[in-house]
Amino acid sequence: MFSVADHLLHVEGEALPRDVSTAAVRSLLAAGTRCRPPVSGAVYGTLLNDRHALEALGAAVNAAPYKAPPRAPILYLKPRNTHAGHRARVVVPGSEGVQVGASLGIVIGRTATRVAVHDAFDYIAGYTLVADLSVPHASVYRPSVRFRARDNFCVIGPAVVARRHVADPDQLAIAVNVEGSASFTATTATNVRGVAQLLADVTDFMTLAPGDVITLGVPHGAPVVHADARATIVIGDWAPLEIEFVAAGVAQGEPA
């Protein structure tokens, strides 16, 4: 089992995560606390689960070799080297920049295999923010490891919010704020599959373990940033997730 009573936060330098109140999370973050990811399981990204992303593809979804929109979730793994926590430093590998995909992370509470839609929420421990980062690229059906699996390209946290605090995960506002740029806004309401349906469809062919995370998917039009940018990601009224982007050759992981 993976359970969360309130807000699970893993402060950098501490051996284990803490389960604390909303007020405690905000107090710690206001003091400049840096965090490790609050989860340690596998993290799976989901592609093309946003209606606007499918609409933007237009007729391309009916072209060879696939000839139709996806009939099942398109998943990819965010391997362990990508996992980073609140206030992480992320290296921008080239002139293309880094796309900052803000996604709702669904944190699994108990072993989930062939879960029915009406039972899906019983398998969820809580939710977290996931900054699913990638080098901008055109491939949508075959996610590229080279573009999506670079070090620190999956920033998670700051905390896992207990399921009981989230009345409707399919109606949450999302914002990406980059210093000096207009805020990017989206909502989980535009997803093709909501939380329960996504969990049912994924566990129809694979088992999810306690502590695993599956993202609901990145909204279409996510902003691209370059070195020296700072981004703050927010979902609903949760504590924000902060990321610093640096040029190659600058040490990763530690805040300025």
TrEMBL record:
Keyword Metal-binding: yes
Any Gene Ontology biological process: small molecule metabolic process
InterPro entries for the chain: FAH (IPR051121), Fumarylacetoacetase-like_C (IPR011234), Fumarylacetoacetase_C_sf (IPR036663), HPA_isomer/decarb_N (IPR012686)
Domain Fumarylacetoacetase-like C-terminal: residue ranges: 43-243
Gene3D superfamilies (alphabetical): Fumarylacetoacetase-like, C-terminal domain
Pfam families, A to Z: FAA_hydrolase
Entry-linked SUPFAM superfamilies: FAH
Molecular function as annotated in GO: 5-carboxymethyl-2-hydroxymuconate delta-isomerase activity; 5-oxopent-3-ene-1,2,5-tricarboxylate decarboxylase activity; metal ion binding
Cofactor: Mg(2+)
Keywords: Isomerase, Metal-binding
Keyword flag 4Fe-4S: no
NCBIfam families named in the record: HpaG-N-term
Family: Belongs to the FAH family.
Protein name, entry field: 2-hydroxyhepta-2,4-diene-1,7-dioate isomerase
